[in-house]
C-alpha cells in the first residue's frame, strides 16, 4: 500500500508556482492576485479561506480577503462580485461556499466573470470542462487528477466509482475520469444518496473517489483487494479530549480499508492540501490569460 501524500505533492506544486512568480517579479511583471469572499462565520469555511490566503503569501501572490456578515443580502453580495469583476488588479476570485440561506448560490456563481472564476464553478467553465476545452477545472477534482498523475496511478480501462454528486466534487470528477487521456479513460459509475446496493458497486471498483461527508462510511467489506482510494471527506467530529474540541475524519475507515488498498489518500494530508495548491495553479493560469493587464 502506498500513501498518496497530498501534503508533499501540494508543497512541490507550490514550490513550482513560487518559482514562476519569482520569474515574473524579476521581469518586473505584475504578480497574480487572488481575492476570496467569505460570508458569515462558519468555522470550517474560515479555516479553508485562511489557508488559501496563507498559501497566496507562500507562493508570492497578492491576496485580498473580503469578509461579509452572515446577514449580508444577495444584492450586497452581487454588488461586491461586480466590483471584483471590474477591478483589473484582481486576476481571479472565489466565493467560499456554502452561503447563508437568504442567498441564491446559483445566482452568485452566474454573476462571476468566467475569466476570473478560478473555482471553475460558472456554467461556461463547467461546460468547457465537459467538452475538453481549456478552462479552469474545479480545484478539488483538479487536485485529485494531479495526485493520480504524479503517482502514475493507472486509470485507463479501470472502473472508477464516484460517491456523491455535488457540483464541486462528485459531478465534475465523474466527467473528468471518463475523459480521453491520462488521468481518464475510466469507466465511471456515479453513485449518490438514492443508489441501491452501493456495496455491490463499490466492491467492483478499481478506483473509489468518495465525496460524501459521512465519517468512516466506506468499510473494508465494501472494497476489493488493490483498490485505489481517494477520500475527499473532511468532517469535524466533536471530541472534548482534543484541544480544538473536534477531530477531522474522512469518508473512509482508513485503518481497515488501507490494508486492502494499493494506493490511499490520508485525511488530513491527502486531497485537502491539493485543493489549495490547485486553486493557486488556477490563479496563475488566470494571470497568464490576463497578461495584457498591467
Ligand atoms: N466550499 C468547499 N469547497 C469549496 C471550494 O473548492 N470552493 C469554494 N468556493 N467553496 C468551497
Describe the structure.
The chain folds into 2 domains: 27-113, Rossmann fold (3-Layer(aba) Sandwich); 139-272, Rossmann fold. The protein contains 10 helices and 11 strands. β2 (33-39), α2 and β3 form a beta-alpha-beta unit. It has 294 residues and is α/β, with parallel strands linked by helices. A 6-stranded parallel sheet has the order 1-11-8-7-5-6. A 3-stranded parallel sheet has the order 3-2-4, with helices on one face. It has a two-stranded antiparallel ribbon with strand order 9-10. The model has no long low-confidence stretch (mean pLDDT 97). Bound molecules: guanine (GUN).
The structural class is alpha/beta
Which fold name fills CATH's third level, the topology of the largest domain?
Rossmann fold
Q: Tell me which ligands are bound.
A: guanine
In total, how many domains does the architecture comprise? 2
**Helix-residue proportion:** 25-40%
CATH superfamily of the largest domain: NAD(P)-binding Rossmann-like Domain
Topology at a glance:
Layout: E1 2-3, H1 6-26, E2 33-39, H2 43-59, E3 62-68, H3 74-86, E4 92-95, H4 105-111, H5 123-130, H6 139-150, E5 159-163, H7 170-177, E6 187-191, H8 198-202, E7 207-210, E8 228-231, E9 235-238, E10 246-249, H9 254-257, E11 263-264, H10 271-289
Parallel strand pairs: 1-11, 2-3, 2-4, 5-6, 5-7, 7-8, 8-11
Antiparallel strand pairs: 9-10
The structure holds guanine.
Guanine binds next to β4 and α6.
